[in-house]
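Sequence in, structure out.
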Amino acid sequence: MTDRSLRPTDPSFVGGHRILARLGEGGMGVVYLGRTETGSLAAVKVIRAEYAHDDAFRARFRREARAARRVDSPWVVKVTGTDPEAERPWLATAFEPGPSLADAVAQHGPLPPRAVRVLGKMLARALAAVHGAGLVHRDVKPGNILLAAQGPRLIDFGIARSPDDTALTSADLVVGTPGFLSPEQAAARGDGIGPASDVFSLGCVLAYAATGRPPFGGGPVAGLLYRTVHDEPELGGVEEELAGVLLRCLAKDPADRPTPAGLDAALVEDVPSGAADWLPDAVVRMIARRSADVLALPEIEATVADPPPPPAPSRRRFLTVASAGAAVLAAGGGAVAWTALRGSGSGGTGRKQAAPGWAIGVQADLSGPGKAAGQAQEQGARLAVEQFNARRDKPFTLRLKISDDGGNGGRATAAAQRLVDDADVLAVVGSSTDATTQAALPVYDAALLPVISMSAGQNLFRNIRSFVRGRPLHNAVATKLAFHLEATSAAAPVGLLLDRSGGDLSWMSIQMINVIVGKYGAATHPRVVPAGTTELAPVLQEMRSAGIKAFVYAGPLDGAVRAARGLAGFDGPKYAAEPALDARFAAEPSAAGWSVVAGAIGPDAPSVRSFARAFRTRYGHAPGFWAAEGYDAAGLLIRQLTAAGGGRPAREALVAPLKAAKYRGITRDFAFDSRTVGTPMLATPASFVHQVRGGAFRYLGPAPDKAPRPRGR
């Protein structure tokens, strides 16, 4: 079974529930197994801190929690409690220990036709109750359907909302689970997602239950979304009468789908009451076994007296206490945050604590797979600090505190905590990778320690109060790559190779390039290789045989090297996404002529040359990529510290000025768009073009902001 043990940062109590175990974790929060004072069990979902600090999210959560409590159906888990005003809002539902439909089908195969019809009728009634309460579930999928001894239960209102509430997502954001999305969800038509969307998703669920596969297949997300919008479902093997009902549910036009009541009537079958005999014997045994496993609750040590939970502070009182600098309950729950600006001496000994100093922290991968970029940023930041300390008019002496996370998300929280616990550190540059930044930011946010990241470009860090991103997002860089391709090459078709080893960054890049290149009139020839693929020759040969005239690769550094070797002798233009911006790629002989568009400027750019000379004097070698960005980040933070005036500022006092800062750096002019919700976006999102020449990258200049003209083909 999945590890259900609690972690040190998990709360002991949530809203009167004694927390016993972890049940799961998703994008919106963590779900715990809780027990009330009366002994009843509940699934308690605690919202992540980054959402809790979003006033719009909190208002929406409040409305939807009220609506969810009105849902009355035996086939929907009942909401038993909620507190939208808690520092971290939570919602509790009755606990169902059975397996999910996804688990049951994965282990025991498709359900027989009668079981699918019974399941469909009960879930149709569940949707009727949800819609009757004014909600649209928006994530009806096999994982959100539990099989209990008394029947199925629809769970997880994590992204449910009212049909007229458009605040949840931007118009371009796909919300839900690919494979079980409606066409209107797959096309990100936020204002057109209503109750009929849930019916389409239920049709997908029932097709999955009947066949063991989603009706629009699997594979890359982009292709799956395309088939959902444009292709007919694959219902081979489904009983003819049932297939006819499912085709109505899976109609592309929402108006052509049945209502939940209409679906209930169309599925002609008796619904057994309070029994599981409509399911195959193997699944019934699975329900019994899973119930027994989950209900083997972790023991509570008899030697530890569990104190009753303290009264939950209101959000207003919490913020008042926090602003006064007192110790407050940390956002993770249960742990007490250290008092701001504590001295560096040892507390509790009676010795006088040392006065706090002035320091900037750098968190980076200094010893792991991305150490070249991490070390370059650290060296750039160190040079900025040393130059500041060399000034005769400096108002204080500044130190640099380093914390190595090794490029590992698991180490990143500890690396961040080391800087948080150092009272001298007033602001941080870091971290240097997407994964480590994502892991570290909640630690910094709980302490309101200002952070600027220069190389993490994934759009994962929303509503972190103390964070600014000093580089463009990966999708913005991919857009500039597509514009550069259009500006420099008339060759088509363009081969696009998505290497899944590169994760979301690779998928995002290829999707964006495919859309933009197609928009400007060029044919594309996209191909995908699974994560872990080390032999690219077959797919590259197929692409060359298909007549591609230009080529784009999106994947990790080692894959880019393999792609360059596999395309040796191909004389068309060749481009790679940002991970290829590494000296190891440029050193590959077959990489000659490849172009890379990235958020990092070249160390040979005109605006960076003075810095490069000083860097070489200090370190004895030329700066690597991201060194100039580290220098700029430290320079921006130093400017904010010197502008504070009146002595050493508190950390939290630097947050708002940092977000409003305007700073002329050597890599770009920094300004942050205050109109964006949550994390401020860089208002100057320039990207830069580099080309491999003579075994090294040569800086070619900024990438174009738009394609020059639509093609005439």
